[in-house]
Amino acid sequence: RLMRIALAADHAGFPLKEDLKSFLTEQGHEVSDLGTDSTEPVDYPPFCAAASRAVVTGAADRAIVLGGSGQGEQIAANKVDGARAALCHDLYLARLSREHNDANVLAMGARVVAAAYAREIVRTWLDTPFEGGRHVPRLDQIAQIERGELSR
User: The pTM is what?
Assistant: First the structure.
């Protein structure tokens, strides 16, 4: 299924973002590049938040955020209400993040995974459906926590 995908990266993730942008476009997906535009040092939080907001507002179906390790990018992406960002550096986690957690944002570290493997992780993550069932109440509970924190 073809999707609208928002891509965002910091300077460390920039080369992998460029590689994945080409890969996703070749696959027929519609890609929105939310930056950064070079390997010049930048702070990642605004880029990751923009990618998550694109998903939450419906401007994109999914988002991918990239940095050196992917850790900070995942954390920043998850601060957006409604984002479910998963840090996935292998195919197993990519599949489970979709099947069990309905992850809508994928975080990866460009200093952790090679571009060729990152493409396979992305392919698995995009192609894996959410299982629903027993996982739905758990996601509802996560959303309740999120709403509670926002109302504090």
Answer: 0.97
